[in-house]
Amino acid sequence: MPVFQRLFILFKLKPFDVRVQEVMEQGRFDKKKAESIVRKHRKILPDTATSDRVYIKLFKNMPRSDAQMAFPNTKVRFRLLDKLKFGVTAGRSPYPRRYATNGRWLRRYEVLFASRA
User: Fold this and answer.
1) What pTM was computed for the model?
2) Residue 104: what are its φ and ψ, rounded to 5°?
3) Dihedral pair phi/psi, residue 64, rounded to 5°
4) What tens digit of pLDDT does each residue of 53-74 get?
5) Which of 41, 59, 42, 60 is nearest to 50 (CA)?
6) Within 13 A of 27's CA, how many CA atoms are on the CB side?
7) What is the DSSP string of 74-104?
8) Residue 21 DSSP class
9) How far apart are CA 76 and CA 4, in angstroms?
């Protein structure tokens, strides 16, 4: 069974007026109807939930099927910037930093690379 070892969720509610405007545009409702729809959907949230806060939740070892039930029609994806950051940090070798900080390391790896050639 596929499992997410770590699942990190970060979200922030949109301000009430912005969400009302979106509902008006999507459903072609008037302002009064859109406000009632947004209030109805936000009623299920706790009273302490506001658009001023950022909410963070970390799950460990969550089965993929559970994640799909909790968050239907979603895809796990990286933004291009995140892919670049991940690729650079994963692909970067520790050797260049050691060259600059410690001459001993440089000599050791020169011997290592010379023996492989």
Assistant:
1) 0.52
2) -60, -45
3) -60, -35
4) 998 988 898 888 888 888 788 7
5) 42
6) 16
7) ------HHHHHHHHHHHH--SHHHHHHH-HH
8) H
9) 10
Residues 35/57, Cβ–Cβ less than 8 Å = no
Residue 88 has pLDDT above 90, yes or no: no
Q: Which helix (H) or strand (E) holds 3?
A: strand 3-11
- Look at strands 3-11 and 55-63 and give their pairing: antiparallel
* C-alpha dist (Å) from residue 71 to 7, 18, 67: 12, 23, 6
Token pair 């001993």 is found at 104
User: In three state form, how does the secondary structure of 45-60 look?
Assistant: CCCCCCCCCCEEEEEE
Domain ranges of the chain: 1-76, 77-117
| Residue listed under structure tokens 């909410």 | 55
Maximum Cα interatomic distance, the chain, rounded to a whole number of Å: 78
